Amino acid sequence: MLKNETAPLLEVQNLKEFFKINHNDKVKAVHGVSFKIYPGETYGLVGESGSGKSTIGRSIIRLYDITSGNVYFDGIRISAGTRWNEKEIKFTKIRTNKKVKELTSEMNKEIKEVKTEHANDKELSNKYIEEIKAKYKPQIEEAKKYCKEVVDREKGNIRSAKYDNKHFEEAYTKKLVTEIDEKYKPIFAEAKTEAKQKKAKEAYSKEVEKAKKTKLMPQMQMIFQDPMASLNPRKKVEDIVAEGLDIHHMYSSLTERRDIVLKWLKKVGLSVEQANRYPHQFSGGQRQRVGITRALVMNPKLIIADECISALDVSIQAQVVNLMKDIQEETGVAYLFIAHDLSMVKYISDRIGVLHLGYLVETGTTEEIFNNPIHPYTKSLLSAIPTPNPEVEKTKVPLFYDYATSNIDYRKGSEHLISGTHYVLGTDEEIKKWQKK
Amino acid sequence: MEKDKVLSIKNLSITFTTNSGDVNAIRGVDFDLYRGETLAIVGESGSGKSVTTKAAIGILASNGRINSGEVIYSFKNADGTERPINLLNFSKREMRKTINGKRIAMIFQDPMTSLDPTMKIGTQIMESMLCYPNKLKARYNDLITSENVDYKFAKKQNKQDYESKKDLIKESYKKDISEAKKKNQGVSDIKNDYKNKLKEIKTAFDNQNKNLDMNFKKSKSSIKEDCEKYRLSLLKKRDDKIAKATDEMKDNNDEEFIAQKNKEIESAKRDYISQTKVTKEYAKSRALELLKLVGITDAEKRINNYPHQLSGGMRQRVVIAIALACSPDILICDEPTTALDVTIQAKILDLIKKLQKKLGISIIFITHNLGVVAKVADYVCVMYAGKIIEKGLIDEIFYEPAHPYTWGLLSSMPDLNTNDKRLYTIPGSAPNLLHKPQGDPFTPRNKYALKIDTVVEAPMFKISETHYASTWLLDPRAPKVEMPKELKDRIEKMKGDFKNAKK
After folding, report:
1. pTM across the whole model
2. Which of the listed residues A42, B213, B216, B452 has the most CB atoms within 10 Å of its CB?
């Protein structure tokens, strides 16, 4: 499902997330991941525990400040990392200093030689020295100038990144207002009579007012893994669901608040009386439904589902997956679906990214990944899924993949296009070898 | 070929007392576990899979009450004799001393919570071995416990008999007296008669009790004697060896010979110690052996690690090693792979299967994932709302399922080979057992429910020698209902897959 004609809802560019443990060590959790999510589609992120799936989800929703890279949501840069820019500045400075030092030492050496050679004739030596200085000075200056350019550029980048990290909501409002402006331009031009113009102006100011109130971040919501742990045991379901509404003042009266909550509770298959119950009075599947309602009530464009079905029974998993698909059809919400089990991901995702040790090793549409897996890690993931077929299961030997002994270095690999939108990370020889098999 | 039954649960029923009322968690469960086989219990959460096994090894929550049933375990004594014993008659202390960990071991779901974060894993593996280090005492304990359980049970039954008889006599006495009063007759005769009768049964009861006591004392002393004899025989063996060696040493002056004999003496001493005691050195060597057995590389280094230094899969391997430390007969795996990734899950399942082949232990495998069941099980029980609704050999359950719930479970498994966009689901959720279900508890979720399902629960219908299912659809009077077409196609395809794989 290629949706190139529309702009991506979420764009992650070269995302890096490192965690400092102490002065010397850091955990490189995510290592240069890029992907796009288009409106109304589901992107499945699959990988074993420790591969950085959840870190990516949390970085996108700004629970972590990212180390490097950019995240664009609805066309607005919502978070940007500056670590690489800082590195660039540091190393450019070091490189320039080294160069300058070399040049000056060379210059001094030559000057010394000249001085010893023409020790008697001071005038001549001075002349030569001037010549040498004239020769080296522009070189040094050029190096310094280049350094300054780079530093200024990177500093500007850092400044803009820091600005964006703080002021993305304002940028979003600006974007909305310009959109409204463009929409009303022809209307204003058409409205000839004064009355019509007044009417148009009123409508315009109303929309602008509304746009100023809408915020960007509430449009991205998250569903967590353990439904019991993520719901407040002291609150009733109604209050849990309405918490986001409370924070962003999204209702004018208490009846409106209740109406909104009940509307969404009905949509996920919970009854009206259940709104007054506490989380412990629900079964696991129902609790997860409450979690989904809490996300949906904010009218989000993107929901990050972080292992939201892993803690449930298989039959309940199927129910929740079907529910999420129904809601997607109805509201057009996009999902970033994080899981470690490829079998359920298959049913909900349009596209899949396979993550291992912080690297996106294979990405493509669901059909591409399932019909033609290339990377050995993807193959091992697929072969590990148990099927309800005892005779086959008993004879099947799952493929095990061990990064340490496989002689594969993810750092050396680059993305290779296999077909359509199917990309695999690896060196040229590796890709050839895997494709042959 | 007659198979050897290790554990058989008969008509077990358990109730939990809670604030909001009694919950009938288990309502009559029957199954048998054979030696060297794997029994899988499948069901949704809350269907009572874990509770059944927990009751069997006596670690039920304190508000749980066992209403009826038997857990017959073939108890292998240290001297090689084997006899079936009802585990429900054991006290908690006896259970801990002779059964838990030693004969029946358990692996729990989350490896991080079942390991102690403050102890090295080597110490944790050695812990259960060093818990009762005196082997002679343990041997005595084993023998006496099985005797004691029978004795206590007999005594209890005797008392119950006595009480019921007493009640009967009391009732008839009251009746007689009231009748006599109506007829204005004297009651002294009746009273005397009543007193005599009471005395009679009391003496009978006392005699019986005395008999039981005597028998128990006798068997106890005989066991004691046996144990003492065994100890003396071991001691004699050692002393004989030493005496022989010293005798030979007297006549010979060759230094090498003397050194060799000294070595023999040493080894005899060591043998005796290893036969009577679990030493720390032995426990450590065994721990290393176990770690290697469960597939942990550099066991010598890992033995000094703490749980947080290991990955999830390694932790589960350590938990398995702990369970195997005392070489149990039965291993209960309570969702051992639910908290793990699919790739790690495949590895752990492989390991469990290999261990079973190597050690010949019986395994009860509790899970909700039918894919896992297909991989490990020989025999499957499907549980729903505290009851087994279908049981059979693995091929029978997967290729010829009979109960609508099993159909639903099988259909809701994701299939990698088809391009369906929607998953089949069983509508609704598991019933709340607080309220006694009217008829079959699966009825509200059952597409194929008949009228009788709402009134009476179906009995177990026999399909084949090993395959049973509890659904009215199997009754000869019921309308012919086939399993859903999608599932039928899928099963046909699975059979085809198998044939292809064979070729």
Report:
1. 0.83
2. A42
Quote ipTM for the complex: 0.78
* Cβ contacts of B494 on chain A, cutoff 8 Å: 387-389, 391-392
A351 vs B: CB within 8 A: no
Given a cut of 90, whether residue A385 has pLDDT beyond it is: no
Q: Which two tokens stand for residue A318?
A: 């199927």
Q: Chain A contacts of B410, Cβ < 8 Å?
A: 388
Q: A405 CB near a chain B CB, below 8 Å?
A: no
pLDDT in tens, B298-318: 889 999 999 988 888 889 999
How far, CA to CA in Å, does B484 sit from each of A93, A314, B118, B430? 72, 19, 53, 21
What's the rounded Cα separation, in Å, for the pair B41 and B376? 11
The SS3 call for residue A46 is strand
Cα of B98 vs its chain's centroid, Å: 13
Q: Write the pLDDT tens digit of every residue in A134-176.
A: 888 999 999 999 999 999 999 999 999 999 999 999 999 999 9
Residue B388 has phi, psi (to 5 degrees) of: -85, 120
How many Cβ atoms sit within 10 Å of the Cβ of residue A192? 8
Give the DSSP H/E element, type plus range, for residue B12. strand B5-18
Q: What is the DSSP string of B29-96?
A: EEEEEETT-EEEEE--TTSSHHHHHHHHTT---TTEEEEEEEEEEEEE-TTS-EEEEEGGGS-HHHII
Which residue of chain A has the CA closest to B43? Answer: A313
Q: Report the alpha-carbon distance of residue A339 to residue A54 in Å, rounded.
A: 9
B106 and B323 Cβ atoms separated by less than 8 Å: yes
Query: B353 — contact with chain A (CB < 8 Å)?
Result: no
Distance CA B472, CA B459 (A): 8
